[in-house]
Amino acid sequence: MTTEFALIGFGEAGSTFASAGQWGGRAFAYDIASDRRAAMIECGVRPAANAAEALAGAPLVLSLVTADAALAATRGYAPLLNSGTIWCDMNSVAPDTKREAAIAIEAAGGRYVDVAILAPVSPGGMNVPLLLAGKAAAEAETRLRGVGFTNVRIVGDEIGRASEIKMIRSVMVKGIEALTAEMMAAAEAAGVAPEVLASLDASERQIGWTERAAYHLERMRAHGLRRAAEMEEVTRTLRSLGVEPVMTEGTVRRQRALGLQGKESKA
């Protein structure tokens, strides 16, 4: 059977895509965790005994390993690629990491494409937004659409550009999650969670992020020093409740920095 594409890594993303795309025997899959073989069979893809078997003859590879293993996997498997194979690095890593990975793939005769996944793979499935960057991005887009991905967009030919968008976006997306956890830990410890959440609902403004970002920056430059002082008191409050103010201490520093910037611009 001809391998249309290969998956390196078969965790949540790989198994979700394989099931949603109904890839069946079109794809070979390999994961260093041998217990993932059962998941591959359940999803209908062909499990490979090793990476060499998965990659042999594959014109397209989807790298879906863990972030901490992405560069090592790329360097380790690059010599196994056929000349011209497109390696889609779909892992959530820094732009510099992707640029290092690209060197390994291109040195082995492959073509590297930086791919950023911009939403949870479940329930997104094949509709999850994908950003592509790299000289082979146009062909990668065609091939990715050919295997079922529907929301694919090229953002440039420079490796790392797609990753930059995702990494910078994650400052907000993952930061809000961390701030929420810190707030809720304190609210529950104080026994005031319902009141805190109700007050946030009452003050929520439904505006777009372009307007929201400008508004936040303006307010911080105008009032950052005062707000930093207030947030110092918030850190004391959290500590009194047994909550380490990891995120809040960062807020103090950022508010103070923007407040000083605003003060200097008026001087």
Explained architecture:
With 267 residues, the protein is of the alpha/beta class. The chain has two domains: 5-157, Rossmann fold, CATH 3.40.50; 166-266, N-(1-d-carboxylethyl)-l-norvaline Dehydrogenase, domain 2 (Orthogonal Bundle), CATH 1.10.1040. It contains eleven helices and eight strands. It has helices at 12-21, 37-43, 51-55, 70-77, 95-107, 121-124, 137-146, 161-190, 193-203, 209-240, 246-266; strands spanning 5-8, 27-30, 46-47, 60-63, 86-89, 111-117, 130-133, 152-156. It has an eight-stranded mixed beta sheet with strand order 3-2-1-4-5-6-7-8, sandwiched between helices. Helix 4 links the parallel strand 4 (60-63) and strand 5. The termini are far apart.
